[in-house]
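> Could you send the Adapter protein MecA prediction when you get a chance?

Sure thing. Input:
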Amino acid sequence: MKMERLSQDKIRIFLTFDDLTERGIQKDDMWREIPKVHELFSEMMDQAYMELGFDASGPLAVEVLAMPAQGMMVIVTRGKMNFNSGEDTMEDELEEEVYELELTLEETDQVTYAFNDFEDLLRLAKVMAPMLTDGGTLYAYKNKWILLLDAEAMDEKKLQAVVAVLSEYGEAASVTQAVLEEYGKTVIAENAIGTLCAKFQ
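Output:
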């Protein structure tokens, strides 16, 4: 379980499928209201408090993005407490310490990896070229190179192999294609892996 603070009121947690399996949770369980998922969420909030000083009191918006072969990206945003609701309700809230959750669940068929160094990206391209017929799209976003591949065309075994190689050179990214299109810059629109290999031999 990896976590990082995105802003004062927002954190991102990356759960691998191993993290879920260790806790006896299947990927599909994240969509259901079961005690194990509540326990996992409490554990994540405790760890977020210890590691990042993130206090999960008050209303929380939780976005869960399931990524093929990578795991789950969980983004937690803390809302503002409503202090005008009278003293009694404030005391009740403090006593109960129950999370008020607004949950959004999404699934994506895209595998997105970020690279800090262009050299790492080139090394990856040389290893990946024989594995892929469609080499994805390359974006520049927030001083990183973001490679986006479509997992839909790959079978489970191939997907696992591709993700294993990607993990050696880059790190899983939670940014969506819509955000990359709007705020990033498209560097290579299609077959990025093949194009990188051809241009930088």
